[in-house]
Amino acid sequence: MKIVIVIPAYNEEEFLPVTLNSLLNQSYPIDNIIIVDDGSSDGTEWVCKSFAQSYPSISYISNIKKEKRASGSKVVRAFNLGLKQVNLDNYDLIAKIDSDIGFPENYFETIVNAFKEDAKLGLYGGICTIEQNGVWVEEIVSNLDHVRGALKTYRTEAFKQMQGLRTIMGWDSIDEFLLRYNGWKVRCLSDLKVKHYRVTHSINGWYKEATLNGEVFNNLGYNILVAFISSAKRGIKKSPYIITGMISFCSYLKNRMKKPLMELDNEQKKFINKYRLKSIFSRLK
Q1: Cα separation of 97 and 223, whole Å?
Q2: Last residue of a domain, one of 162, 196, 230
Q3: What total number of domains does the chain contain?
Q4: DSSP state of 242
Q5: One domain for residues 229 and 161
Q6: ω into 17 cis (within 30 of 0)
Q7: Is 165 found in the same domain as 49?
Q8: 3-state class (DSSP) for residue 255
Q9: pTM reported for the whole predicted model
Q10: For residues 6 and 82, is the Cβ–Cβ distance under 8 A?
């Protein structure tokens, strides 16, 4: 199976070499690696140039539209910019990965074998670990039915059927719901671990993260019940407790009052709410 990897990179001169070297050392060779220098102000461009000149499988482009850095939509725009450089019909798998990840040598060999074994597998990935006191421990930010945005590998056929990634906050959940809606499987392998060198959400404070979560709930088409339960869950798990849940729900209501996004149709929203409620109640058993 042929693989194309697109890596959006913003001010990652420290960790991008680690990511690229770990990809070059894979037991299953990667056919094409495209780095998108997304308006970096550090030495990221130099890193991109150096690797592109040394390895024929690596290329890079610069995003000349240096917008204000934002989560979600800007990352997807950079990813889409990279995808435009290739003919997707020439690849079986499309991977979107972050520029601060260290992969074990067998990572993509494991990924490819999983896609070969299951023709209905649409998205697959491992889990992130972070270093704490010299020990690499699992970075728990989601359930194991969710593949992190840093580690997405799609079957090209499934990727095309869902019409690619949405340029809004919550894209890395919308993709999974759309894949399931279209009959594809989404799997995350807990034994397939990568090293994540930058802690998730370390740039944003808790208040911004809570408000962004409310925006995501709205973008996913959550109804009020699902949004309330999801916000309450956040209030239980995230400090400052209760307050984060209240802010998330208020942010959801605020975004809900705006003109609704047209990224999802009513049938897709119904599917998402039914799936979320089923998932929530299954965990209560």
Answers
A1: 31
A2: 196
A3: 2
A4: T
A5: no
A6: no
A7: yes
A8: helix
A9: 0.92
A10: yes
Q: For residues 162 and 217, state if they share a domain.
A: no
In Å, what is the CA distance from 28 to each residue of 49, 159, 162, 169? 24, 22, 27, 32
Torsion of CA 133, 139, 140, 146, to 10 degrees: -170
Tokens of 70: 């934002």
Encoded amino acid at 126, one letter: G
Q: Structure tokens of 274?
A: 């039914």
Same domain membership, residue 241 and residue 212: yes
101 membership: H or E segment, kind and range: strand 101-102
Mean pLDDT for each consecutive 10-residue tract of the chain (285 residues)?
97 96 98 95 95 97 68 85 96 97 97 98 95 86 81 97 94 96 96 87 76 94 96 90 96 88 90 93 67
Do both 184 and 231 map to the same domain? Answer: no
Instruction: Tokens for 35, please give them.
Output: 């780095």
Distance between CA atoms of residues 171 and 149, nearest Å: 8
Q: Is 234 in contact with 255 (CB distance < 8 Å)?
A: no
Same domain, 162 and 274: no
For residue 143, give its domain range: 3-196
- Considering only the C-alpha atoms of the chain, give the largest distance between any 2 of them, rounded to a whole number of Å: 55
CA 153/CA 113 separation, integer angstroms: 13
For residues 264, 65, 12, 220, the Cα torsion angle rounded to the nearest 10 degrees is: -10
Asked, for residue 201, whether it belongs to a domain, the answer is no
CATH number of the domain within which 162 lies:
3.90.550.10
**Domain-ending residue, one of 196, 219, 253:** 196
